[in-house]
Amino acid sequence: MNRIKKGDNVIVISGKDKGKQAKVLEMRLKDDTAIVEGVNMVKRRRRPRREGEKGSTLSIPSPIKLPNLMPFCGKCKKGVRIGVMGEGKDKKRVCVKCKSKI
Q1: Residue 38 falls within a domain, yes or no?
Q2: What is the pLDDT along the chain (102 residues), one digit of tens a residue?
Q3: Which of 8, 13, 21, 66 has its CA 20 to 30 A from that of 76?
Q4: DSSP string, 30-66
Q5: Is position 67 within any domain?
Q6: Which domain holds residue 37?
Q7: CA 11, CA 39: separation in Å to the nearest integer?
């Protein structure tokens, strides 16, 4: 069972965006990274497509390594470690400190 999944709220624990809290948009398990909303933004320049159109600069999120992210517990209001409760189909990810479902 993965520690972080698509749609989870996470907090960045290291790097230039340390302390930011955001939602996971995409998981890339092959290279152990995730794309997080508004975190690790990079600028890309786009050429004009048609005649008379101007080129533009886009800010897009870049992948961030999973060890730099920590699941965010709404009850504890901080990044927490994840535990698993239940067996089989009843498995649930829970906060280690307050035992609330994540």
Answers
A1: yes
A2: 578 999 999 999 999 999 999 999 999 999 999 999 999 999 999 999 888 999 999 999 999 999 999 999 989 999 999 999 988 888 899 999 999 998
A3: 66
A4: TTTEEEETTSSEEEEEE---STTPPPEEEEEE--EEG
A5: yes
A6: 9-72
A7: 10
d(CA 102, CA 25): 17
How far, in Å, CA of 30 to CA of 93, rounded? Answer: 22
CB atoms within 10 A of CB 11: 20
Tell me if 3 sits within 8 A of 82, measured CB to CB. Answer: yes
**CATH code of the domain covering residue 40:** 2.30.30.30
* Beta-carbon contacts of residue 49 (< 8 Å; ≥ 6 apart): none
Domain count, the chain: 1
